[in-house]
Amino acid sequence: MKILLVEDNPELTQNISNYLQDQGMRCESAVNLFDAQDKLLSYSYDCIILDLMLPDGNGLTLLELIKSKKMEVNVLIISAKGSLDDKLSGLDLGADDYLAKPFHLAELLARLKAIYRRTKMQGFDELVFNEITVVNSQLQVLVNEQILDLTKKEYDLLLFFLTNKDRVVGKNAIAHHLWGDYTDDLSNFDFVYQHVKNLRKKISAAGGRDYIRTVYGLGYKFDSAAL
Amino acid sequence: MKLINIISLWFLGITLAALLIGTIVIYEKLGSEIDFELGMELDRQIESYAQRIEQGAPVEKLQYDKLQIQELPMDWPTEELWLRDTLAYHDPMNRNETQLKASRSFKIDGKHYRISYYNLVVEADDITETIVLTMLTVFLAQLLFIGFFLWAISKKIFRPFHTSLEQLQQFSFQKNTPLKLTKSGVYEFDLLNTFLEKMSTKLLKDYRKIKEFSENLSHEIQTPSAVVRGKLELLMNESINEQQAALIQAAFDSNERIRRIVKSLAILAKLENEEFESPEPMDFSEGMQQMLSRLEEVIHMHDLHLKKDIQPGVILQIHPYVAEILIHNLLTNAIKHNVDGGEIDILMDESMLQIRNSGKSPSFDPKEMLGRFKKDGEHQDSVGLGLAIVNQICKNYGFTLRYTFDKPFHSIQVQFR
């Protein structure tokens, strides 16, 4: 996947491109609208990560450019303005998703992959990892050709882990991914633990390897090298 | 007490004191003046009688009830004029009356006579009566004048004061217009008005600064907070030991707290400045049900029993985002401050929403519950702004908020109408 990141904060840019490159994506960055337009017209990208508040204007103008030029590119808006109106106008202008700052890097990646699956694969892709197969169109998970009986949350969790393979995913990031903003101040970590435990049990019961390991008290890691 | 009444009372009191002192002084002066003049007159009379004796008028013939002539021994010295009060028979009134008696002695033709002459005095009580009556008249006139002043003139004099007061009451930060007060021509009022105008301009300037500051702050903090979070997430993926993991987690949690506090404060500021667009009718029952389904799992995991009686189709005039915040804060509170295996009862109809939840007794006065950063000791991780936000929302939309604790139930009521 080739990504263009349009963001004026250098630190944030570094965080995001670091994370994405570690996950095997190609990530280029632009620090303002002018730069971004230049790059967009010269190269092609799969997805644009777009900040709205840029030094030389509002990122929404870039959406208009993409629309008028009929470019085949997905847009994920990231914005510090968590206000409803911004979100709606962004989605109205043809953005594929909207993520409010501050976000978890794991969440950003999950959203990118989800957009990619929806648009490029029309949702008919299969994600295969060793003995685990995720059939997106059916919302099904197979382990050694055996269908796992997972809840919606467990399915989301497994997909989240597979997307962020071999990375430590924090408890906060998982809680946020599963329950969104609404459970911001409810201590959900016990639930995260509960869901992870159930998921591991179900994979093991079907004869799958136990890839998920805890990382001290921080979170979990889907370890592809697990024995 | 009205200013004008205070002034009038003082004025009356001072007048009364002045009148009393005046009465005494006038009484004294008048009495002594009358006595003096009478004495002079009597002296002249005595002298004319003495002349008549000198001219050879018979002493015995001269005497009548007002005139006494006594012969004194020759070797006594002549007496000076001597005045004294005495009781003497007064013919027209046919009784003894206080009279002034003046006497003086003369040596005429080898004889020594003491001539005493009586005359009626103006009586003290008569003087007093007259003076008191006069003074009372003056005092009553004063009262009348002051009454008239209170009724008519004070209105006129205090009019600029009242207009300024009205303009002051209409002053609002939202309108963002400094006070323009009308000139009255009264020096003190104009002084006050200029001061008020200056103060309002300064207040508005400060208010704008504070508002900008809080807006910028909440927005500007988001970015560094996001950077910190990202760095910590990257750090998690380095090869770390358990100690470092604990440090990362602690830093991460504190950063999350900052983010939540700033978010809540931004919402509060927005509410207080009434910056949300005008309310529109929204289905509050629907919003309630949606939020409950979102939180369903959390409620279930806390092992809480949910009882709900929500009347469908309750329409409220409220901004949908604000409604979401209101419902969310009330429900998460009921979950957070509950006990394992406890319960949540939700009751809602067109007039009110009531959320009851079991929980521990609050460690402070329930009235303080709605203040900012008020936290129960056990929930140090919570920001403590949830109910303050709910309170502000209720203020904005004219709902009444009531919190009661009836062991073991905390109950929050929002009265819509």
From TrEMBL, chain A:
InterPro entries: CheY-like_superfamily (IPR011006), OmpR/PhoB-type_DNA-bd (IPR001867), Sig_transdc_resp-reg_receiver (IPR001789), WalR-like (IPR039420), WH-like_DNA-bd_sf (IPR036388). Gene3D superfamilies: 3.40.50.2300, 6.10.250.690, Winged helix-like DNA-binding domain superfamily/Winged helix DNA-binding domain. It comes from the Bacteria. Residues 2-116 form the Response regulatory domain. The modification 4-aspartylphosphate is found at D51. Residues 124-224 bind DNA. This is Response regulator transcription factor. It comes from Algoriphagus halophytocola.
UniProtKB/TrEMBL annotation, chain B:
Keywords: Kinase, Membrane, Phosphoprotein, Transferase, Transmembrane, Transmembrane helix. GO terms for molecular function: kinase activity. Pfam families: HATPase_c (PF02518), HisKA (PF00512). It comes from the Bacteria. The chain crosses the membrane at residues 7-27, 131-153. InterPro entries: HATPase_C_sf, HATPase_dom, His_kinase_dom, HisK_dim/P_dom, HisK_dim/P_sf, TCS_sensor_his_kinase. Residues 216-417 form the Histidine kinase domain. The keyword ATP-binding does not apply. Gene3D superfamilies: 1.10.287.130, Histidine kinase-like ATPase, C-terminal domain. CDD domains: HATPase, HisKA. Its EC number is 2.7.13.3. It catalyses: ATP + protein L-histidine = ADP + protein N-phospho-L-histidine. This is histidine kinase. It comes from Algoriphagus halophytocola.
